[in-house]
């Protein structure tokens, strides 16, 4: 590890910059593994992390009911067989506290903490042409200088807090789920309002309903949700998994979404109605995101998708006893799974409770927060606590919250003013030696994240090793390669139904004023990883490497 030292060119009133080979921003799944890989190459690396601990998204998202929608045995690192053999998962889907225990165990096991600076939010990163190095600043005035600048800032880490008039006059407490207090919030006996019915709201609502005196849910867009069917991890299943991890990991890497299951190759409309219904029933009973894999064409053929969407609407009608409430809960404005499909525990059932009210804020929009609650265009609701489960400025938000400047001082905010432009979602032309782990233009949020993260980290580490061993110290994509990739990302999205979800955060549509561009790469994980390998195999085709 390089001992921090003063750089002659960087001494100023703020003190010396720490000179490093690489700075990684973020200590979640991505930043931790990136540190581990770069250290093994003998590089001096510092990870800068805004939180006071490791965990990234799981460090911040401590809201009631926070749980992963990938199953625990594969929502985990695969890079160390010892790690995957020794760790014991306790539930089918890991809850937030269990993921935090796991990531803290990884940090200790691989001795990562000594190179992570906690409580430092990076505010600026600028490429200096004269030195060929990146200079970074944090909110407490620390400065770092590095050859490589790697962002591991997560895709869903910039909280989207709606600008509702009067919020500052509210006499109660309010929280965003992605910034939940670490000490927890006691909602017992309180009148609670939850705004938002995405994956987060759908997880939190049933748990909050059990604690609160009364819960009012403010729903703008009804959502499809599939039962998670969470439960304890069976010992025998865990033994089987551990005995077969090689095959499981191979299957994940060969898949479309990084999950270890096959997508059916049967088109939904190729089978008789009764058989199709039986397939959906079985998928509903099994639970989880695998429901999407019930037929081959649910994400590419609207008519096929209609059969799944209608099946789920039928389930909502069956579960929710009050027909008027059920009607309000029926998603109709987008095909199933074109927004990220939530999975739930007793979500629709919660509306059968006496202490839960559903308010349709599409019909009667929220007009203001008052000192005592929330007012819509048709009624006023008295509340002690407001919970904003209103999501994130996804994918680009965490990057653009940092003032990143490339060659000639060009701001990334300016370059991406019409939407993100990257080569492979890994790099932006004009920003030499900068890499974005699971950046826009990569499969990222359309996949099981640790699978995508490991693939990116491995690619970046291999690239840096290649540069070093071939005497290069600078890599930058060409604008032509980037343009072609952006076009390919758009084509891949257009081959699916995904762009049909008009209010989706995949499109940036949840943040007022954000450009509407389909941001993740929808061509599938395995196809994408193959392309990355080809690029590397062809001597980093599409990049210019210089000494
Ligand atoms: O955020 P979202 P999320 N007034 O953007 C509503 C991952 N995740 O935090 O649809 C009223 O999906 C908004 O309404 P609309 C997962 O990838 C995973 O729930 O824009 N309502 C919507 O209902 C997920 O997709 C897990 O009309 C407003 C909700 O708030 C992603 O994180 C768990 C509003 C936001 O839904 C984001 O999920 C949790 C306003 N002004 C999250 N603004 C698991 O692993 C927004 N809304 C299980």
TrEMBL record:
Question: What organism is this sequence from?
Answer: Pseudonocardia acidicola
Signal peptide residues are: none
Keywords recorded for this protein, A-Z: FAD, Flavoprotein, Monooxygenase, NADP, Oxidoreductase
Acyltransferase as a keyword? no
Q: Organism classification, top ranks?
A: Bacteria, Bacillati, Actinomycetota, Actinomycetes, Pseudonocardiales
Q: Report what the protein is called.
A: NAD(P)/FAD-dependent oxidoreductase
Q: Which SUPFAM superfamilies match?
A: FAD/NAD(P)-binding domain (SSF51905)
Family label: Belongs to the FAD-binding monooxygenase family.
Superkingdom to which the source organism belongs: Bacteria
For activity, the cofactor(s) needed are:
FAD
**Oxidoreductase found in the keyword field:** yes
